[in-house]
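Hi, here's the filled form for the chain we discussed.

Project: internal
Contact: R.S.
Residues: 512
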Amino acid sequence: MCNSDITTTLLIEKPPQKPHRYLDRLSLPTTVKNLDNLKNSSPPPEIYPSVSDLISETKSLFKLAFPIALTAIILYARSIVSMLFLGRLGDLELAAGSLAIAFANITGYSVLSGLSLGMEPLCSQAFGAQRPKLLSVTLHRSVIFLLVSSIPISLLWLNMSKILLYLHQDPNITRLAHTYLLFSLPDLLTNSFVHPIRIYLRAQGITHPLTLASLIGTILHLPINFLLVNHLKLGVSGVAAAATVSNFFVLLSLVSYVWIFGLHEPTWTRPSRECFTGWKPLIRLAAPSCVSVCLEWWWYEIMIILCGLLANPKSTIASMGILIQTTSLLYVFPSSLGFAVSTRVGNELGANRPHKARLSAVVAVFISAIMGLSASTFASGMSQRWGQMFTSDGEILRLTAAALPILGLCELGNCPQTVGCGVMRGSARPSNAANVNLGAFYLVGMPVAIGLGFWLGVGFCGLWLGLLSAQVCCAGLMLYVVGSTDWDLEARRAQMLTCIGCDTKILLSEGD
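And the returned structure, exactly as it came back:
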């Protein structure tokens, strides 16, 4: 991770003397600083969890997951406000906004989110291994990495209309969608800071600052929309600008809170030239993390593109936008649990406690199954009423009601699969998750969706049946990978990953 100039210092430095409100609670064992000792050490004896261990781990997961879920719900409320303002402007504007958001997710937000996840195992395992200063170096590198990655994304957004017209999208919808994206360009800069800071804090068990910052941004989002859309009559441009401005307030509030209360001090070092060296471990984790996230995100957004090729594209695209907002709401809970288990697994592997990492994974998967049942019940029960929150158009309501029960069944596989991805991230195995998503979504789900939607004439619901087949396959593969994990091996890999100066080929190998 770092260059040779600081290798010796980092390997022998003592943990910072200043108390850390979360690090001090971990009661971590002394980590292995000598690779020879690590190679010659025998794995700890098998430890079977008691009922109290299960309860304690469940509490730890919920303590992390609850504020993450609350933050996601707050951000979801903000996106709902944007969709409601688009719906009030008209069906054309709603379809254009949905298409623009889909394009932004495919080419921008999913890429930045995925690349930032490369720092998650580095930060969580370093924190568990009592090397908190390494978190700051990783944060600096990740911010620079995302800022550089935003440049080609911006160029792509500037040429969005040509791409969509080439894909045979409706010209009127494309024109408004391109306008929406132009006013969303500054959001790439904001996300390049928000994502790394969020992971940097979460690896230390600090989740409440982002919740408070997101609440501030969401509270401001409604009056900003009224000002730009209703008062200044900026239309689609106003909705996009309001989302960009409110997200900037999230970043401003987050940085201010962390700085004022000194949450950064125990793990903070000033940016230096070290940030521009030693990128290999970060990039080798970021690339497959990005692929894993993008493969899943792209599936949902590609379905919007396919809707534009069906009969009555205005209604199908608008309905797909509503359904994606719905699945985003349901996704809040398993994704929050996935982030929580990623942190817990990373911390415990970094602390050389493989039995606790395994316990966290097992408990999280069990909870995710309960979440899947709850989400499926909710989607089926609300099928006739949910679409009325967004529009009164009869055709859009009919399509939404028909697809919601299928969406609910998808959640039975989506919840365990999402939590499994979290386990893979925490154990620094993002390529495993990428391979699972590639096989399930694009070798199974995509052919089924296209075959049912177009060749067999099932149409809109055929696309969702393709997603159902993908989620079932993905969940099965992910549970197999998690269940066959050698946790002692992953603990040894974590010790090497946090041992600066080691061979990166050894550090990041996911094989034996």
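Let me know if anything looks off before we file it.
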